[in-house]
Amino acid sequence: MNDHKYRNLTPHEPPQEPAIRGRNVITVIGVDDYVYWPKLHNAVNDALGAQRLFVEQLGFLALIAPLLNGEATEEALTNLVQDQLPAVLKSDDSLVIFFAGHGHTRESQVGDKKIETVYLIPVRARLDRWSDYIKLDSFLEDIGKLAARHVLVILDACYSGIALGRAMRTFRDVVRYEEDLISKVSRKIITSARREQRALDGGPIPDHSLFTGTLVDGIKWGRADLDGNGLVTSSELGLFLQQQVGQSARAEHGAKQTPDFGSFDFDDRGELIISLRSDNFDALRARAFAALQQGQITNFHALFEQLTALRPKSPETLYLGYRLSMLKDDIEGAIDAVTELITKSDLRAGTIPLSERDLGNLFAQLYCWQKVFAIPDRDGPLEVELLTGVSKDSLCAAPVQVIDDRLVYQIAPIRVAQFKITNPSDHVIHVYMLVVDSDGRFYFLPFWEDEKVADVGLQPGETHVSYPFKQIGAPGLYDVRLLCSPTRQFWLLSPPDIGPHAAVGAHIIDKDLTGITRKSIRYRLGSESIDVEPN
Fold first, then answer.
1. Quick one: which of 114, 262, 293, 498 could link to 164 by a disulfide (CB 3.0–4.6 Å)?
2. 8 Å CB contact between 195 and 162
């Protein structure tokens, strides 16, 4: 039996005993109101938000009260790892330690060598008083000696990335089965920024830093489950945060912030595993959204039915119902779901992946363009290929998976991509592109790189390429709807920016769409492995 669920056994190698699963424990630290250092705005919210996520959604225990603001002194942090945690942890437990606050790096020159030391800053630490700071190497060494089998340290602090040093950076799909991962000791760390970078104190998730908001969103909605197996390993979470925070920092803030992740003292290549496999509402929601982003529509539909049975009118269920309706070309159902979301007075920002403005735009788009959205998907006359590569000069056919009997292209983040279109028919075809992103927003985008093709159409037997694009955004499933017409459609060349005002573009409801067909292409923005570096 050479399948990954089994091991080849020799007479001298007894079968591996199933790993005993202990408790999952979290402890958090957050400091906004520094006495001498600049005050922060979201560190306490980040710490409490992380605790709520792990306790309420993932079933972790908060055995020790959070250390917030004035409680997060040097003495209290030292006491936490040297006295309190050793007193409550058992050998099979899994522990998450979350710190949000200031970090700092000191550079020393010894001969021709530059030595850098990173510190965490307690609440009463004075400026340039290094003796007031907590040396992270020593802090991690004490944490590494705790009794817990698995430890994950998460640092949302400026200049925290130096903590990794030459530590291993790796991502493993769960090829080794779960028992193997949890049986070995792990000591992992995820940092919010590399050593020369500042961690942004705000982001798109209200009341959270960019890093912590991405972490909360990634687990809440299953985005961090990169392989869709219902488990998120600490390394998988690290890779997700590295990709998403780095992209968001560049795209939305014009800044560089790249999280990093690795191992520290006493790691034995195990993994702390966050399970999304229970049948409570939060876990089902995360698994449903992860299945959608993986392109597993049959599984997504089944999980959505379970969510509907539990909370049919919750914002999360309505949002997923909108996504399912669009996949089924049920435009009336999609409009109903969006309408209910808009009218919910208790819909707080960040509850679903779409903002209040997004919902207003969607309502207008669905109402005004419902006949366009309802055009059925057909194979059509076009031959379509998706090309991808690290640059436009290195494009080749993107890898394809068959998911639910449908081809889904795979694209790695930040790669250049381009559609290659051939017209094998005996008549001209005009092509227009509508994109549904991984969160369910719609975009009409210009398609042809050659403006002449946009003007006169794709002639019989011709092959042309679309505009090249670089895919930056949330990982998941993107739905490209190619609208094909035998005649030029001026209103699709420059579609109106509908925005939140339903009156604009309402004439499209009465458009004659005779002869227009649709060919849908799906692609997944996925993830890339990172090479393993030796400890």
1. 262
2. yes
